[in-house]
Amino acid sequence: MISYRKELIINLPKRRGFVNITPQVNNALKESNIKEGLLLCNAMHITASVFINDDESGLHQDFETWLEKLAPEKPYNIYHHNGYEDNADAHLKRQVMGREVIVAITNGNLDFGPWEQIFYGEFDGKRNKKILIKIIGE
Amino acid sequence: MISYRKELIINLPKRRGFVNITPQVNNALKESNIKEGLLLCNAMHITASVFINDDESGLHQDFETWLEKLAPEKPYNIYHHNGYEDNADAHLKRQVMGREVIVAITNGNLDFGPWEQIFYGEFDGKRNKKILIKIIGE
Amino acid sequence: MISYRKELIINLPKRRGFVNITPQVNNALKESNIKEGLLLCNAMHITASVFINDDESGLHQDFETWLEKLAPEKPYNIYHHNGYEDNADAHLKRQVMGREVIVAITNGNLDFGPWEQIFYGEFDGKRNKKILIKIIGE
């Protein structure tokens, strides 16, 4: 069994947004030289997500509107968490979108359907955040 | 380490529904001959889910009602994604229900609690959709 | 490849609550002697969750309020599932919070960001519930 680990760093210049990280994950897979196995990709911060969906800007606007409806940022004082912080909504949004994805590795490639792309979802940005890639296999 | 891969194909004759795929996943596990490891089962399409919950038809009606409340199908024009498409709601519903499950494999079996069953959740059906099963272990 | 399996048992004296199980998961990892690999931790019951977020009591109150808004416990008769049961809401809440987490194991440790902690989320308590830990690696 081989294992491989890499961290990505993202600094989004606004509070919320979605970044397609599929190219970086693919690069990590190539560096690992693993041909068969499982790849874990997770946000290392609890106000961010890694998820798989469509690379379509209209859909990303819909995600933003929808998450704001389900777990609005403001007013800040509706959340107990927001004593010294203002990011309770980010912790909730992250639960809807998820922390991590697991991708099958087959013949040295991400074993994806036709439209699957990996996204980093930031809900409390404007600072360095880390993403972990861990691959195990052969 | 052994790895095993299989695709399932599902064509649901309506837009939304839930299908218990535990028997097919179990068959794949038996074919793999893997006794200890991890099994990944994921929707290969981004308007569908694989998740674990209860095989109870009343609950499945509750999921349908609840998901329509959280992310309604119509009116189509409330979603930016629905320019050439009408399935923005399916992309949102899939985030609530999840893309994938990971199941422990122990003594050659799905290592499940008493009521755990694996479901495919379709949110934009009436066409062929693929599910991936990948198992690694020994 | 080594594999390791352990069950935790939790009996929460109320219907809903969150328990930090990171110490128990860490103990299991040390017992396994696995240094590189992947760790799966999942609820074995379908009215409970395992998830990663912040160990902050205000946030846990926010989760409770938010989940009750998204999928209220009462009135019981709004759910088809509640013929002989009263826990339909617990099945829905568990979908928002997720069934499982996968954690990278690096140098014999849980490979975590600065605030990541593993929680058991109970949505239908007052009885014994099981959590599965499965680790594979070397």
In short:
Chain A is of the alpha+beta class and 138 residues long. Helix content of chain A is 25%, strand content 38%. Chain A has a five-stranded antiparallel beta sheet, covered by helices on one side. In chain A, strands 2-7-4 form a three-stranded antiparallel beta sheet.
Defining key terms:
homotrimer, 138 residues, alpha+beta, 5-stranded antiparallel β-sheet, 3-stranded antiparallel β-sheet, elongated
Please characterize this protein's 3D structure.
Three copies of one chain form a homotrimer. With 138 residues, the first copy, chain A, is of the alpha+beta class. In chain A, 25% of the residues lie in helices and 38% in strands. In chain A, strands 1-8-3-5-6 form a five-stranded antiparallel beta sheet, covered by helices on one side. The longest helix of chain A has 14 residues, at 57-70. Chain A is elongated and about 50 Å long.
The helicity of chain A comes to 25-40%
Strand order across the largest sheet of chain A = 1-8-3-5-6
The ordered H/E elements of chain A are EEHEEHHEEEE
Q: Which pair of chains has the greatest number of interface residues, and how are they split between the two chains?
A: A-B, 33 and 31 residues
Low-confidence runs of chain A (pLDDT<50, min 5 residues)?
Answer: none
Q: Given the C-alpha coordinates, what overall shape of chain A results?
A: elongated
Mean pLDDT of chain A: 98
Largest sheet of chain A: 5 strands, antiparallel
* Straight-line N-to-C gap of chain A: 5 Å
Number of helices of chain A: 3
Structural class estimated from helices and strands of chain A: alpha+beta
Total strands of chain A: the figure is 8
- Rg from Cα of chain A: 16 Å
Strand percentage of chain A lies at 35-45%
Give the quaternary arrangement of the chains: homotrimer
